[in-house]
């Protein structure tokens, strides 16, 4: 399922947004109408979601190598699908420009894409090239040169890095996470605290009133 959704980021956003709306609607409507059944359902969904997040974090920590291998495969699949979907293309270009990286492991990964494949039988004008988002922007550059990555796969790494980013995005993202551990940890803790915050008053009354002696 994840492999399919990564090809179309818009579909992923629609599905996640719809689920978030449904869960939030249960809590909001249940609190307004004092519907304990909806509130209990809302609480149960949040509890399951919280436990799944904790379990996913633990599994990711224990099986780090497997997670990294799976992540690399998913990122490589997005490179193969580049130019097939506009949303995916924009997402990849944003990541490469944001983290100043190119490809998954290196800029040569773009040879897996049919448009950038570096072979004599490839009739594409972009053969042996990389997307413009891999290019190093000059300080005084005002006009974007979308052809700056043409033929860069044929260059040696030493000469190529004068024009494009040669480090893969997977390594750059890992480096960013390691350098911002406090930020990542703080955001994660903040999200978890929101999920375990106090439940709505009608739900508290539902569970507490039967415990109060007459």
Automatic annotation (TrEMBL):
It holds the Pfam family Tetraspanin. The chain crosses the membrane at residues 12-32, 44-63. InterPro entries: Tetraspanin/Peripherin (IPR018499), Tetraspanin_animals (IPR000301), Tetraspanin_EC2_sf (IPR008952). It comes from the Eukaryota. Keywords: Membrane, Transmembrane, Transmembrane helix. It is found in: Membrane. Gene3D superfamilies: Tetraspanin. It is a multi-pass membrane protein. PANTHER family: TETRASPANIN (PTHR19282:SF168). Belongs to the tetraspanin (TM4SF) family. This is Tetraspanin. The lineage of its organism: Eukaryota, Metazoa, Chordata, Craniata, Vertebrata.
